[in-house]
Amino acid sequence: xxxxxxxxxxxxxxxxxxxxxxxxxxxxxxxxxxxxxxxxxxxxxxxxxxxxxxxxxxxxxxxxxxxxxxxxxxxxxxxxxxxxxxxxxxxxxxxxxxxxxxxxxxxxxx
Amino acid sequence: xxxxxxxxxxxxxxxxxxxxxxxxxxxxxxxxxxxxxxxxxxxxxxxxxxxxxxxxxxxxxxxxxxxxxxxxxxxxxxxxxxxxxxxxxxxxxxxxxxxxxxxxxxxxxxxxxxxxx
Lengths: 110, 117
Prior knowledge:
- Chain A is mainly beta.
- Chain A is built from no helices and eleven strands.
């Protein structure tokens, strides 16, 4: 079993829809949770960062962490074609070494 | 957010040659940097941890003599792919962490696409 599981998709939704991306993990020692967006042939870009459990909102993006269920989510409201990318969840125990999910390929159709 | 640069952004080389990739943290110092490789449609695979002033730490299965890492300063790490072969063709990405109280994030460079002919 992988430490971090993420559905690779692909996921295709119409413009304006709410997108929900999720990851589950098995190691309860993870404390730092991140979502990265990666466009084709580019490096990952940090979107959201959460420490421990809770919600965090930044514009159209909301990140949720439920440590009791070992489940993290990223919601994108009013999705735009420019949001089309691969979204990677990542987490760490605090020793800087990140463990990534497989990444979900998302397409927003105009 | 913090900025990490990589150079070159892409490189094509002949089999058997060596290629050096630079990773720089532009607006902060990093005693540690990470090197990843990514194959098409796959996630990032950590290759090694670059440590300023000491030897790099390699992940299991990564050949340290093939992938030479030098962390020359607090803002520069280099990855040299020695005697490159076509199977080394991949997307190489570095990252640098920003760590503080309740903070443990990494900022990634734009990546270097290596093609070995």
